[in-house]
Amino acid sequence: MQDVLGGICNRSSCVAERVALSPSACLARVRTLETKGLIRGYRAHVAVDRIRSVTVVLALVTFKQHVLEEFTAFDRRILAMPEVVEACRISGALDYLLRVIVNDVHHWKDIARLLLGGDYRVEKIVSQFLMDEVKPFSGYPLVDASSSKRSG
């Protein structure tokens, strides 16, 4: 669905044809979905590694204690860092999963030291370096796949 809606302004008649609506009716429905917050935005999948040399780090962050104020301060810090392109607070033994884009390992060491040395009470950061994206994110499934398997 994301590939259908991505860049809607430039391809509204193509989308309308695929969903069997007139272009104006299709655009009106899309605008309603945007207004209701069901469509949060559009983005391009840029091959950043073809533009410049990058290293992608998947960082698993663990805190010493679970204190809301420390999470909030950490959130503010990573939101201000352009290198952190994605951040999720997760459940289980780890607290955060970060996707960080850096120039090289030395750049990552500087960022890791900054996060470990702050007043966030980070216990440890486990770094994983992305080798290859086998299945990059392409949008959420809008249909429950498990229900279609049961009925078939």
Q: How is the main sheet built? A: 4 strands, antiparallel
Please tell me how large the radius of gyration is: 20 Å
The tally of helices reads 6
Shape: elongated
Order of strands across the main sheet: 2-3-1-4
Poorly predicted runs are: 1-5
Distance between the termini: 23 Å
Average pLDDT, all residues: 86
Describe this structure in words.
The protein is α+β, with helices and mostly antiparallel strands. It has six helices and four strands. It has a four-stranded antiparallel beta sheet with strand order 2-3-1-4, with helices on one face. Helix 2 packs across helix 3 (23-35). The longest helix has 13 residues, at 23-35. The two termini are 23 Å apart. Residues 1-5 have low confidence and may be disordered.
What labels describe this entry?
disordered N terminus; alpha+beta; 152 residues; 6 helices; four-stranded antiparallel β-sheet; 4 strands; elongated
